[in-house]
Amino acid sequence: MEAFFGLLEPYSSLYERVFSLSRARREHEELVEALRSGFGVQVQNLDQLLLQSAGRSREVGQSLVDRVIETVGFRGPGAERARKAFRETVRLLDGEQLIETLILAPSLRFERSRGARSVSTVTSLNGPLTNLFFLRDQQAVTDRGIVMGRLAKPQRRRETEITEFVWRSHGEPPVAKIERGTFEGGDFLPAGEFALVGTGDRTSSTGVKEFLASGIGVPEVAVVHQPRHPLLDRPDPMVNMHLDTYLNFLGDGVAVGYREMLAAARVDVYLRDSGVYRRSHETRLLAYLEKAHQFNVVGISTLEQMCYATNFLTVKDKAIVVPDVARNAERVLAHLRRAAEEHPPRYHRLYLRAAREFGELRAEGGFFPNSHAARALGLESVTVGLENLTGAFGGAHCLTAAVERA
Q: Which of 127, 386, 397, 384 is nearest to 241 (CA)?
């Protein structure tokens, strides 16, 4: 429901483009089915998880009702009467209505025209959470447990209130919470004995400091500074808003990434010493992966990076659920062409490169994960058509919060 309102004005909702809501719903269902049936992954929907907890615990159920009462606003003549009636009858709403009310945050304003015998109602929504379905960002799951983030954009700030409530209600209390800076889960990539944390438009240096102080305990953390796209004359954070938009791990010792961007990304390496992370040295992300940790980094093209090729979900070693990059490409290229027409100095070079790659990749049938380099790894992949959902700036990785890892 909340995405319906987001699509009325995509830009302010942090979406890339307009897309079909009904098709996006089907894509989401296909993603869930691929995880459940294809790999035996236990998948829980956030709303159902909360309602299950409320059904088991009277305290959680009461807390849910209280939150809904606090969320709905009443103003104008008769507001007190309406507020009192809502408090008395809110328990008659079903679970889905309670959840939607939390997400939409409706407010009712009553108006009575002079001489009128009845009151009219204007209903507005106070920042519906149009990006809540991107469950990667509100939190990160580290070796210590769930770490609650603090989202950078005002449109998304309230999302963590809901997800934290769900985790606590489900008996998974967060081990840490970012309070001062900003931190988003799309900027966190765990890799066993080390982890990567991106910093830039969505995750601030202050947020990273808080995260290192209480949210993680692995021996080594590499803090990656968001690089400028090599084909842009100035930064455009939406091109690579999170670390997972240009890098991801396929399995043990294998990564997929946009090599030009990885080579440009500056990295500060921190080592854990007596419970405290201390900066060791600076390097570049590509060198850090290939030389310091002997990773095989499979490269992708400029166009594939913009089509969410790295926004896949690794289910087990060299087994992924990945957006259909080839199907995304045409829409992404059309959107980029419009951007190049409106702002030629900024996006023309990027569009020309992407257009050339589109022709080459389509002729070869080599869009990731069907590229020669990916096939040579023995990669097992399940492709899910997410060409509508990616219109909201995210793929399979963004749509999921991995709560438990093997």
A: 397
Confidence of residue 159 (pLDDT cuts 50, 70, 90): very high
Task: Identify whether residues 183 and 259 lie together within a single domain.
Answer: yes
How high is the pLDDT of residue 55? 95
Per-residue pLDDT tens digits for 41-59: 999 999 999 999 999 999 9
In a domain, 405, yes or no: no
Nearest to 146 by CA among 165, 117, 167: 167
Which is more confident, 120 or 289? 289
C-alpha span between 404 and 172 (Å, rounded): 11
Instruction: Identify which of 188, 187, 189, 134 has the alpha carbon closest to the alpha carbon of residue 163.
Output: 134
Among 299, 323, 340, the domain boundary falls at 299
Mean pLDDT of the chain: 95
pTM for the model stands at: 0.94
User: Which of residues 249, 269, 299 is at a domain's end?
Assistant: 299
Domain total of the chain = 3
In this predicted structure, the answer to whether residue 347 has a pLDDT above a threshold of 80 is yes
Tokens representing residue 165 in the block: 């409530």
Which of 9, 39, 38, 31 minimizes the C-alpha distance to 134?
31
* Inside any domain, residue 385: yes
Q: In terms of C-beta density within 10 A (0-12 exposed, 13-18 middle, 19 or more buried), how is residue 378 classed?
A: exposed
- Would 406 be classed as within a structural domain? no
| Residue 366 belongs to domain spanning | 1-11+20-41+311-392
User: What pLDDT band is residue 195 in, cutting at 50, 70 and 90?
Assistant: very high
Residue 335 lies in a domain: yes
Distances (CA, A) of 340 to 12, 232, 345, 349, 388: 20, 11, 8, 8, 22
